[in-house]
Structure formats: structure tokens, C-alpha cells
Design a protein that fits this description.
Blueprint (H helix, E strand, L loop, with lengths): L6 E4 L2 E4 L2 H8 L17 H17 L6 H12 L2 E4 L8 E4 L9 H18 L5 H12 L1
Antiparallel strand pairs: 1-2, 3-4
Helix pairs in contact: 2-4, 2-5, 3-4
Amino acid sequence: MSAPLHFIKTAAGFVPKSQAARDFHAGTKLGQTIELKGRRPRNPAHHRKLFALLNILVDNTDHFANVEDALLAVKAATGLGRWMRVEGATRELFYPDSIAFDAMPQAEFAEFYEKAVAAVIRWWLPVSDDEIKEAIEAFAA
């Protein structure tokens, strides 16, 4: 599968953003029908803010050995995944869903991020919403 082509919406229509998109656009005949799959790309800065939150969590509690452990706990606390009973296990096991750029659209990620902030405040760092968001902005800068 080839990499996605990015376009910018303008008053005149969609304008190619990258060279690959310009090449595709130039090779498309006027009036030719093409198929586009509408998806807004994820915001990398928003992704960085999540990992800033996770680093703050790891640095300010003794609950997690690393960011990966914190991410797994936050996914469980926000319900991003599923709990399953596995034969032979003494309790249900958690199978997390992915937050990879290609697995989760930006709108879903934004919702997960807000739930993650709320979960961190509720379960691990009892600070105000403003305090944690200020710390995230400082860490992510």
C-alpha cells in the first residue's frame, strides 16, 4: 500500500500539499473520477502531549516503571481495549487497543486524550485540571 497523499482544502478545491500529491494531481486528467478516502491526519503535537502526560505520571508516582506501563494503565482506566477471561488465568486480562496514527483517527484520539487526563487526575495525580494541563504544556514544549 502506498503512503497517503495529503491535500489542503481551499476555496478553489483540494490543493496538493506534498510532491507526491502534486505528481498524482498532475497525472489525473481533467474530469477524471478519482477515489478519495476522507481522513484527517493525526496531530503529532497532540500525540506529544499524551506522552508528556505519561512522563509526568511516571516521574511523579511510584506506580509505574516506565511510560509503556503508564500507557497500558491509562488505556485500561479509560476503557481503550477489552477485558477478557482467559482459561487458566486467575482474573480477567486486559487487551489494549492501539493509539497508532493509522489505527485511531484524530477525533477518537482527542476523546481518548481527554479521558486520559481525567483518569490520571482521578487515579494517580490528584491535582486540578488546570495544573496538569499547565504541566503538560511545559513538558511538551
